[in-house]
Amino acid sequence: MEIFALTFQPYGLTGRQAKLSSVDNLSVNQSTLRFSTTIFRHIQVIDNNPITGARMSGLDRIPTHIEGLDENMQGGIPQGHICLVAGASGAMKSSLTFSMLYNAVLYGETSGIYITLEQGKESLRAHMSNMGMNVDDPRVRNRIAIIDLVDLRVQLDEQGMSNRVDWMGQLIKQLTSYRQSIGFELLVFDSLGAFFTLTKMENPRDEIFRLFEAVRRLELTSFFICEMTGEDHKQFGEYGIEDYLSDGVIHLVMERSADDVSRKMSVIKMRHTNHMLGYKPFKWKPEEQRFTTL
């Protein structure tokens, strides 16, 4: 498994390029996505060619490898979808999402990256290995990259430079660079809430649309982890618009009964997919290195 460290250029210093370094001294050519600000001011979705049931079944899909879920979701998540994985702390959002990435790479012809802003790479490696997901397995080692922004985030905060970094622009730029150089197809972003503390969100809908549209243009199948917020914690994400702009929403909950705690999951939304409704208990099957809803 490759682990990358990023250095972002301060906002406004156009003479310098953001640099990417890896343990393998991977050299990546930088590229930039340019967006017209007028595109994001008026968002209108027009579907002149709706997808029928027959066409839905023929879509290329990425299996989640969650036992009992793919069978009730036409085989998996449509390629190119942007999915939220939402839930409270302790609901196993990171574990479940990493397992989908891990097993998709282990059993399929694909590759992916996991961007973390909250849990350091060594902690993440240890946690997943403890669950039985061997990140040093030769079958996945060279096809999963962990991009750790935790240390950079702390360093910039200490130096008082966080507000000088165009985090949104640099993130889009780096994703574009990775896509062109590494050729990954799956993206896990952990988490939106942590990222929003770094970037100025004067117009959240436009900025989130800007990020999601960039990911769509890169033809990535992506999973964005977020917390439940708002009154009674019923809002998906920080601004309550993330679920509207995404293609799918997977909701993880924790239910308490006396001293017992159970975890359940539900597919709240999955465009172009006939999927199960309702909440199903889920748990980890260490002998198979995957989650199950059965």
Structure notes:
By secondary structure, the chain is α/β, with parallel strands linked by helices. It has a single domain, classed as 3-Layer(aba) Sandwich (Rossmann fold). Helices cover 29% and strands 25% of the residues. The strands form 4 sheets. Strands 2-1-7-6-8-9-5-12-13-14 form a 10-stranded mixed sheet. It has a two-stranded antiparallel ribbon with strand order 3-4. A two-stranded antiparallel sheet has the order 10-11. Helix 7 (167-181) packs parallel to helix 9 (204-217). The chain is globular and about 50 Å long.
CATH class categorisation: Alpha Beta
- Give the number of DSSP strands: 16
Strand order of the largest sheet: 2-1-7-6-8-9-5-12-13-14
Strand count, sense and barrel status of the largest sheet are:
10 strands, mixed
Q: How many distinct folded domains? A: 1
Which secondary-structure class do the elements indicate?
alpha/beta
CATH superfamily annotation:
P-loop containing nucleotide triphosphate hydrolases
**Net shape:** globular
CATH topology, which one? Rossmann fold
Q: First CA to last CA: what distance?
A: 31 Å
Secondary-structure blueprint of this entry?
Elements: E1 2-7, E2 19-22, H1 37-41, H2 53-57, E3 61-62, E4 77-78, E5 82-87, H3 93-107, E6 112-116, H4 121-130, H5 138-141, E7 144-148, H6 150-158, H7 167-181, E8 186-190, H8 192-196, H9 204-217, E9 221-226, E10 228-229, E11 235-236, H10 242-245, E12 248-257, E13 260-270, E14 280-281, E15 283-285, E16 290-292
Parallel strand pairs: 1-7, 5-9, 5-12, 6-7, 6-8, 8-9
Antiparallel strand pairs: 1-2, 3-4, 10-11, 12-13, 13-14, 15-16
Helix pairs in contact: 7-9
